[in-house]
Design goal:
about 300 residues, alpha/beta, TIM Barrel, eight-stranded parallel sheet, two-stranded antiparallel sheet, binds iron/sulfur cluster
Length: about 300
């Protein structure tokens, strides 16, 4: 099991920081192309609450860099386009933006969050060209491999579409970072681990795992207020994470084990707001697991 911070430090000889940037894209699951309102758990910010308002990429990089570099002295960065679907829109416009980011010497990687159904041939061509300049990571949320949950969450793409997208991206040399969410209503521990096995079989270069956050302004928040369901406890979540990590390929890099959502938007569970305690619980569960007799 390898963690992203270690892998980057090994590769670049120093800590690498993310700069959260905005491409100005929306999402077909929000603008009415597939649906309106988006995935049930997604807030208006498109799952990227910290993105800067749209200005030139150079300006955004300078501003985000100044904030981080002042505190840390950081010199190397990932251009991180997280919110909405960053391969959805005019490809010529997007390529110009991403070329601006990759042209900067201090940017070592381009990271684009998107949906698996936003990878047209033109987009794939753009990603292939960009990946010849700097490494390109494409982050896609499967969230769950349980199609019934996916439907209930209004995900609006199939598991098959996801698997094909991973293959396409691998064929042009892009890294894939898969996202999963644990704790959807009515999902059992076995459902969650089945999702991990599904992802593992696709051999993504990275994974992000997180607990379902019920955020203000989402459809999930309305459902939860009307009919609250039992949420995982911190310890249950930590145990599932420990089990999930055993199912992932050794070469898959762990990007995230718990979410980074905006605290003021989180309605439940309360415990996700304390990231440090959650990480401690996860590390305890991992070491308990590895020291149990007869367990791998
Ligand atoms: S695909 Fe992503 S941005 Fe679009 S609605 Fe779902 S979570 Fe939000």
């Amino acid at each position: 099991m390898r963690y992203l911070s270690d892998v980057l430090k090994e590769k670049y000889g120093e800590k690498v920081y993310r700069l959260t940037l905005s491409s100005g894209c929306t999402c077909p699951n929000r603008d009415g192309t597939l649906a309106r309102g988006g995935c049930a758990f997604c807030s208006e910010g498109g799952s990227g609450e910290f993105a800067a308002a749209l200005r030139s990429i150079d300006e955004q990089i300078d501003e985000a860099k100044a904030l981080i570099a002042k505190k840390t002295g950081a010199k190397k960065f990932i251009a991180y386009f997280q919110a909405y679907s960053n391969t959805y829109g005019d490809v010529g416009r997007l390529e110009k933006l991403y070329l601006e980011a990759t042209a900067r010497r201090e940017i070592v990687t381009l990271s684009l969050g998107t949906r698996p159904d936003c990878l047209s041939d033109d987009v794939i061509g753009m990603l292939e060209r960009l990946s010849k300049i700097k490494p390109v990571w494409v982050e896609m949320g499967l969230q769950t491999a349980n199609e019934a949950t996916a439907q209930r969450m209004n995900r609006c793409f199939s598991n098959e579409c996801y698997a094909e997208a991973v293959q396409k991206l691998h064929s042009i040399g892009c890294d894939v970072v898969s996202h999963l969410i644990f704790g959807f209503p009515d999902e059992t521990r076995e459902d969650m681990l089945r999702s991990v096995r599904y992802i593992a079989a696709l051999r993504p270069e990275g994974v992000k795992l997180q607990m379902l956050n019920i955020l203000t302004g989402t459809r999930l928040a309305e459902e939860y207020a009307a009919h609250p369901w039992r949420l995982l406890t911190r310890e249950e979540y930590a145990d599932i994470i420990a089990e999930a990590l055993k199912l992932l390929p050794d070469e898959t890099v762990i990007h995230r084990l718990t979410g980074d959502g905006r605290r003021d938007m989180i309605i439940a569970p309360e415990w996700v707001k304390d990231k440090k305690r959650t990480l401690n619980a996860i590390h305890r569960a991992i070491s308990r697991d590895s020291s149990s007799p007869g367990r791998a």
